[in-house]
Every structure is written in C-alpha cells, then in structure tokens.
Amino acid sequence: xxxxxxxxxxxxxxxxxxxxxxxxxxxxxxxxxxxxxxxxxxxxxxxxxxxxxxxxxxxxxxxxxxxxxxxxxxxxxxxxxxxxxxxxxxxxxxxxxxxxxxxxxxxxxxxxxxxxxxxxxxxxxxxxxxxxxxxxxxxxxxxxxxxxxxxxxxxxxxxxxxxxxxxxxxxxxxxxxxxxxxxxxxxxxxxxxxxxxxxxxxxxxxxxxxxxxxxxxxxxxxxxxxxxxxxxxxxxxxxxxxxxxxxxxxxxxxxxxxxxxxxxxxxxxxxxxxxxxxxxxxxxxxxxxxxxxxxxxxxxxxxxxxxxxxxxxxxxxxxxxxxxxxxxxxxxxxxxxxxxxxxxxxxxxxxxxxxxxxxxxxxxxxxxxxxxxxxxxxxxxxxxxxxxxxxxxxxxxxxxxxxxxxxxxxxxxxxxxxxxxxxxxxxxxxxxxxxxxxxxxxxxxxxxxxxxxxxxxxxxxxxxxxxxxxxxxxx
Amino acid sequence: xxxxxxxxxxxxxxxxxxxxxxxxxxxxxxxxxxxxxxxxxxxxxxxxxxxxxxxxxxxxxxxxxxxxxxxxxxxxxxxxxxxxxxxxxxxxxxxxxxxxxxxxxxxxxxxxxxxxxxxxxxxxxxxxxxxxxxxxxxxxxxxxxxxxxxxxxxxxxxxxxxxxxxxxxxxxxxxxxxxxxxxxxxxxxxxxxxxxxxxxxxxxxxxxxxxxxxxxxxxxxxxxxxxxxxxxxxxxxxxxxxxxxxxxxxxxxxxxxxxxxxxxxxxxxxxxxxxxxxxxxxxxxxxxxxxxxxxxxxxxxxxxxxxxxxxxxxxxxxxxxxxxxxxxxxxxxxxxxxxxxxxxxxxxxxxxxxxxxxxxxxxxxxxxxxxxxxxxxxxxxxxxxxxxxxxxxxxxxxxxxxxxxxxxxxxxxxxxxxxxxxxxxxxxxxxxxxxxxxxxxxxxxxxxxxxxxxxxxxxxxxxxxxxxxxxxxxxxxxxxxxxxxxxxxxxxxxxxxxxxxxxxxxxxxxxxxxxxxxxxxxxxxxxxxxxxxxxxxxxxxxxxxxxxxxxxxxxxxxxxxxxxxxxxxxxxxxxxxxxxxxxxxxxxxxxxxxxxxxxxxxxxxxxxxxxxxxxxxxxxxxxxxxxxxxxxxxxxxxxxxxxxxxxxxxxxxxxxxxxxxxxxxxxxxxxxxxxxxxxxxxxxxxxxxxxxxxxxxxxxxxxxxxxxxxxxxxxxxxxxxxxxxxxxxxxxxxxxxxxxxxxxxxxxxxxxxxxxxx
Lengths: 475, 758
What we know:
The structure holds 2 protein chains of 2 kinds. Chain A is mainly alpha-helical. Chain A has one domain (3-474). Chain A has helices spanning 7-23, 31-50, 66-92, 99-115, 120-138, 145-176, 181-189, 196-213, 221-228, 231-238, 240-254, 261-284, 289-309, 313-338, 356-359, 361-375, 381-395, 399-425, 439-454, 460-474, and strands at residues 55-57, 62-64, 341-342, 345-346. In chain A, the strands form 2 sheets. A two-stranded antiparallel sheet of chain A has the order 1-2. In chain A, strands 3-4 form a two-stranded antiparallel sheet. Among the domains of chain B are: 287-509, no CATH class; 520-551; 554-699, no CATH class; 703-758, no CATH class. Chain B has 31 helices and 2 strands. Chain B has a two-stranded antiparallel sheet. In chain B, helix 3 packs antiparallel against helix 10 (232-241) and helix 29 (702-715) crosses helix 30 (720-728). At the A-B interface, helix 6, helix 8, helix 9, helix 12 and helix 17 of A face helix 5, helix 6, helix 23, helix 24 and helix 28 of B.
C-alpha cells in the first residue's frame, strides 16, 4: 500500500485533529491561534502537494497527477486566503470560535480527496467530508435567522444532492460491476454500447455534482446561502469548494465516463448555457452585493463549464485557467466586501459603496480592477479566462456557446460596471464613507489585485501548468 | 526596432507618474504636452514597415506585436499631434481644478491606448487597447460626476462601446481561427482568400458591430452626442478626432481582406449612408454648440465608413483626406466651443451673438476652421469635398442626392458654430466675453491654420502621408496624388450647389430649427430612448426571473430539483429503451407481502397526516418495516443496523420537536397539495421503473460465491455472515461501531444540553 502518496491529505487531517485538541483549551479564546495554525497547515499541505510524485495509491482509490496538483494548490490557496478574510470579521461579529478554522480545514481535506479521487466511493467520501463542515459554517452565525436559514437550506438540498449522487453511484456499480475509475473507463471503452442503467446512473451522478458546482438547474441554494451566511463564509464558499467541485466534475466526466461524452455533453452544454444566462440576467436586479456575487458565481461556473462541454485539450486548459483566475478575483472582491463597514456595522448593499472613490480611492481602484476583471475587460486577468474558453468553444465549433457567452458577458458587464459607477460617480451617503479596512484585508486585496493586473504580462508559466493539468486528465 | 513598441508603452508607463507628479506640482501640467510632442516626432522618424514582436502568450500564438505602415502612421500622428494641442489646452482649461492630475493621467492613459490600438499588429493586442480606450472614455465623460447627465452618458457610452467590443471579440476569435493566426499583417498577406471562408459572413458582421458601436454608426450613434457631457478637451480629442475613428481604423485595416465580399460593401455603404442622413437631420435640429458638432461628427464618421465600403482608389484617397481634414477642423471647433462656453456662459447657438468684436482671435480661428469644414476653395477641406463628390457620383442610386443634402447640412453647421456666434450685435447674457489666455488659443489656431497650409501646399503631405495610408486601405498603391484636379464640371456644379443650398439653409436656420425640433417623435422612437427601454427591460426580466426561479422557499427548490432529476432519468430510461421487468424469481411469501403493505401504509400515512408527530411515526413505520423485511430475507446484520439508525433518528427527532415551537399544521392549500402529490407519484414511479430495470439485469454472483468458498479456508468460520462482519470487513464494522457510538454520544450531549435553559 503506497499510502505515502496521500501525504498531503494525511498531514492535513492530522493537523486538523491536533488543532482541534489544542483549540478546546478552556478559558482562552484560541480563534486567532487556531486560524493561524490552520493557515500554516494549509500552506504546508500545499508544499507537500508540490513535492508529490505521480501515481495511484490506496488500492486505486487515490490518484495524484498534474491535474490534481494544480487544482489542489488552487483549493489550498483559496482556503488559506478565505481564512485570512475571516480573521477580523469573525472577531467583530463575535464569531471568533476556534471551530471555524478547523471546520474549514476539514472541508479543505475533503476538497483534496475529491480532486484526487480515482473511485466513485472516494468521490462520495471527499464530497461528504467537504459538505458536512460547510453545512455547519453556513449557519455559523447561529443566532442570526438568515444564517441559520442558509445553513438549513444548504443542508437539506445538499443532502438531497448527495443522496442522488449515491443513488447514481450504486446504479453505475450495479450495471458496470466496479466503482474504480480506470476499470469503469475500460468497461465503457468497448464497442458494445452501454446499458441504459449506466446512463440513468450517470444522470444522477451529474445532477449531484452540478449541485455542488451550483450550476443551473441545481443552483437554487446559492443566492440564499451566499446572502444569508456570514460574509467570510460566503467568500470561502465562492472560492475553494467551487474549484474542487469543478475539478471533480471534470475528472469524473472525462475520466471514467470519458467515452460516454456523447451522453453527457448535451447536459453540460445546457447547464453552461443556463448558468451563463441566469448569472447574467438575474444579477441585474440585485441590490445586495453578496446576492449579486452569488449570481455572478453561477455565471462564472457557466463559463468554466463551457471549457468542459467542448471536451478538448484546449477546453480543459481553459477550464483550469478560468478556475485559477476566477478564484483569485473572487477572493479579492470579497476581501473588499468583508471590509465593508460603516461606523463599525457590517453593510452589504450596493449603495453602501457609493462615493468610495472619494473617501478611499485605493480601495475603490482595486474594486474597479476586480469588477473589470470579472466583466472580462482586457488587459485584466478575467479577460484571459474568458478568452481561453471562448477560443476553445470556437475551435471546437460550438458557436452557440461562444455567442451566448459573449452576449451574457455584455449583460454582466452592465452590472459590474454599475458598481464602478456607484463607487466613483454617486454621492457618499450622509452618514459618511466606509470605515477604514484592516491590514490583513488590504494585503489580500493588493495581492490578488496585482495578480489580476500583471497576469497579462507573463502568463506563460501558469498557462503551461494549466496545459499540463489538462493533458494529465485527457491523457 | 525598439522605438516602435516604445511609443505606446512609454505613454502607458507615464500614466502613474502623471497622476502622482501633478498632484504635487499642478503648475507643471502644461509641460505634459511635451510627451505627445515627443511621441509625434518618434512616429515621424520611425520608418515605414517597421515591425516588432515579442512572444507574449505562446500557447495561444498571441504576440506583443507592433507594426507601422501608412495607415497607422496617419492615425498615430493625429493622436500624438492633436494630443499635444489638447494637453496644452486642457491644462489651461481645467487650471486649478482639484482633480486636474487625475484628468490628465486618464487622458495620458487614453493616448497610450489609442497609440497601442493603431500600432498593434495582433488582433487580441488591438482588442485590449481598444477596450482600454473605452474605459478611459468612461472616466473622462463622467469627470463632472455631480451631474446626473454626465453619469448617465458615461455609463451609456461605456455600455455601447464595450458591448460592441465584446461582439467584436467573438468576430476576432473567429477571424483568428479562420486565418490560423492573430497577426494582422499575416492575415492581410492572405489576400482575399479569407473572404471565401464559410465563417466570413459571421466575422464581418460581428467585427462590424464592434466598429459601428465605437464609431457611432446608426443605429448605435446616440451615445456620442450624450458624451458631450465631458469637458471640451475630451470632446475634441476623444469624441471627434481620435477614439471614434478607431472603428473606422479597424474597418480600413481589414478592408483588403474582405473588400471582395458583397456583404462587406453593402454593410459599410448602407450603414454609412444611413448614418450620414440621420446625423445631418439631427445636426440641423440641434441648438447646443457641442451637440451640434457631435452630430456633424456622426455625419463625418458615416461618410468615412461608406467610403471604405466603396472599392476604388479614389474612395480610399477621399477617406484618408477627409479623415485628416475632419480631425483638424473638428478638434479646433470643439476647442473653440469650449472657449465660448467658458467665456460667454452658454452653448446655445440661438442665443450666442456678436462675440466677434470682443474675441477677435477666437473668431479668426473659428472662421479658418469653419471655412475648411464648409469646403471653401484654398482649404484642404475643398480637396476633401471634391474627392467626396467625385466618388459619390461614381456610385449611382441614392448617394449623390444624399451627398448634396449632407454637405449642405455641413455648411449650415459650419455657419452656425463658426460664424453665427461671432456675427451681429453683442448679446446681453453671459459673462464678460473676451479672448482667453494664449494657452487656450494655441491649439485651435494651429489646428485651424494647418487646414489652410495643407490646402495651399498639398505636396507637403501627399506622398508622405496620404498615399501610403490610402494604399493600406486599398491593399495596393492608389497612384493618386493629392492636389490633382478631380472630377469635372459636374463635380464643380455639385460643389457649388451644396455651398449655395447650405448658405440658404443657414440663413433660414432660425426658422428651420424650431420646426425640426418640433418633431418629437424623433426622440420618442429614437435609439436613445430605445437604449433606455432596453435597460429597463433587462431589469424587468431580471426581477421577473428571480421571482420565478428564486422564490426563497426550500420546498419549492426541493420540488424543482427532484422533478428535474427524476424526469431526466425517466426520459433517459425511456429514450434508450431501458424499461424492463425483472427476471422471474422466487415469489414473495405472505409475510413479506404483509410487510410491504405495512410499509406502503406508513408512506401513505406520512403523506396524509397533518401533525408533525404523526408524520414522524408514520415514517418510522416505513423504516421498521424495511428492517423486518431485511430480517425475513436473511440479512440480519442489515436489519439490526437499520433498527439502530431508525431508533436513534426517531429519538432525536422527537426530542428536538418537543422543544421546538413547531405547532403550526400543514399550511399548504389544496392545489399545492395536489401538485406535491403529483410530484411524489411521479418521482415514485420513476424510481420504481429504474429499480425494476436494475433488477432485470442478471445478478453477478461472483462476490457471494467467493465469500462462501473462502469463509472456511481463509477465516475458519462456518457462519458466512459472521465471517464477513468480523473478519473480511472487520475494519468497516469497526468504523460503523465507532460512528454509531459517536452519534449516540452526541445525541446524549444534545439531549442533556437542551434540558437546561440557554
């Protein structure tokens, strides 16, 4: 048993147990210490991932390749940055309990298992390890009705999705006789065609996974949960888990079910189209900026799925690069949203940003960078994310996808630019501008902002990594 | 060849320096004009055909590539040259403004982006600079952010140009895919082969949309007059001389590749002509000096687009000459309009009278520019007009008549803007009108005078500027020198007819304008109102959509999810012929049938009962029924697991329900209950069908047989179930026990906790 291959996950899980033990030391608030320790553990895991050899382990349940490495680094980075955002916010909102970072850590372990899954059972285990902590932290502000409702909704719908996925897995197992990805791929690669039961199972599996990436039509939990959960939790939700879920969807569909592309391609195309359209049109009427970000994330997943739908090397590379850019611009945006306070109270309406250009030019400019990047305006990073998936769609002959993608980009540009307009051209409200931000948030904003700005100067190494990741999955 | 990329990149690098430096030392602002002046010289001294390229995104084949040829040189010279004048003017125009540094920094950014766009030799690089100019325009139009109209205009301009830009991006991607490269020079080198590509119509239409939006072509022309909310230097620089010509530039640039396509010609000539007409009528209707000039810019842009669509050496020459002429006089007139606005306190052309005596120098500059605009002999404008008429006469049907009308309208605009405010008796209103400081006058005078100089000595620019640029549009040398007499007596007659008609209309403009302005349907059904309606429609769709799909009700979400998945699965099953009945097997005994009845009753009761406790108990009946069923089928371990989980779940549920304020009965109304029942029945039917299909597949006894065979030799046990639980799957069992234990512990803690208050 070559268990050392899974060292990053094992180290992370052990670190989680140790931190949990330390965290319960009574009589002291260990929130800050635990968060720092968790961030350290996440970064340690990232280093271990970088040094990870390739191969399969644990009886074929676990695989490490360039794709898993790329996505794990993204997820770990996203989780670590997400925790930085929570530091100050949770203290001020009396949410500074040490369970928060520990739950995030276990969720991240789940993400890593998902990304490295080479067996449908490992998929399910990773997914549940991710979901259970997330249900809890969505309701972390448990005395707040909206947060509790968010947690409950997420739990009920998530449980349904997990159940559907498991049902699908059992159907696939029943008809194919195995849950291992490599063996499934062998079974499906024959010319004999596949039994209808496998395709029905595939429907359930895809439905469960689409729920996790929050694409249309299983997106319904997203706006309610994003709005209700505490802002750093929303930031966490929108970054790392999304990367892991998209990576898992890609791995499951292109790995064991790669030869059944004809069966699932239409579904992914429809999900991509629906997500892009809904993400663009539903966001226009929003006043709450977290809700707007929820629709925005649905739209972004639609663009990423475009890369999956074309089933090509270019498409998958586009997906990988899209997730990287999406995560960093999202974390940057949320670093600003988490810091939105007026006279000490957290605010989350779009109008609350009015006049930021006059009161805090630096923050307004960074927000402008993120909004323009999200809208896909060159030369910011977001443009390249869109460019790669559009290009892949055009090369694959999927013109409908590309044209709808461009159309929805126009509509979404409208609401991103509206935020810029509000910041620079609207009057600050009478109560005064937003409070000053904290050094931690400012650092996250600046780091991700600089990435968005300079990505265009030398994108080659990241593109190379994304290309290797794509090649690893498509073989 | 480092001078070439240095031109845009140097300007780009200066942006933060300008913003930072001028905030500390605003008095240095006028010296900023040295930057465009230096760039002007750099462009002038760079040889034709200079190229530079650097691998940028190798995996995509995108390169940081620049190239200088006749067409890009003409544009770069205009950008840097007029830029120098505008920077000088702007520093004086906004002197003492607290945000002067920001204004000039954005203006520098704009100039850098423009230079980058016209020098780029890569489609995507060009696109990046293209969008950057839209952003700079947005910031500059909204500079007076306290005015609502400026905010609206800024957003509208950005929306239209960015939306068009994104359509163009799709076109550029298709073009790059069709040509196999994003290098513009390589695409043009393929000649007209691209026009035969199956995607060519798409490419043409998508790229044209982007260019039309940028260059304010009908029906996307409405944003340009609204953009006049920007300070005058911006109107002069962005919205007449340079940015709005970027669309014209790209059309001209790609013309050699697509000129053979009838769609290309028809689109450009048709839209260009419509734009000319619309702009001319609206220009006559307008009273505001700047908006009037903006409408005449729309006319000029329409003219240029139509000229590019006409495949003829003369048309290419006419386009280049007219482009240059227009840039010179229009920038000058905008700057003068800014001076008038500042000094006389109004921009209403009806009110402005008799400024000539108080502002003689301004009046002289205005006269020079106006004469060039009207196409008076001796000015370069006259060449442009002769060329225009010659070309337009060559295209039969509508064009000559349109040309006559449009040119007459231009004479009126020239008269109303450049002559009328300065003639007659001094008006009463407004501030103390007098000639402004020298810094404000330099640019308009120089630009207006150049129109006369080039008119007198066309050889100065003919071989150096005009011919190479026209050759680039046409894709081959034109062989036409500026200054050669064009056309015959017909053109001459037409030219005079236009001038005469224009003069007549100018004299009657005081009465003509109110009549035209009275046609309110032009506003009600115009594209500007259409833009407003479209924006409101998008919002309405958004609200309706969110209300429909995002009601916030968890039950609704659940219903939608279940319905979708099971409908999808059932559809797949039916479509792929997967429906099947199980193989005949051992029939169930009476005990099992009875248990099935109990389970069914439990399920039905859970649906029918209205009280929460009753529902929990009914659901428990289902669970226990299934457990006993397992028992009767010989799966004792499964049955006991089922019992344990079921008991734990019920105890917890009841314990929690007892403490929660859940006393409201089922609040669903009859139709909702019917819908839910239908959904439940549908999901149940689909699930049953799937289950039956699964059971119809022959059972693979491999594992069962292996367990049976290996139990004695491998694990020394005769009870196979025991062997499986405690030996073969011992780790699983350990895990299960641990989970159960933890769950029971957690339940105990929870139950004890909730007993206490708080």
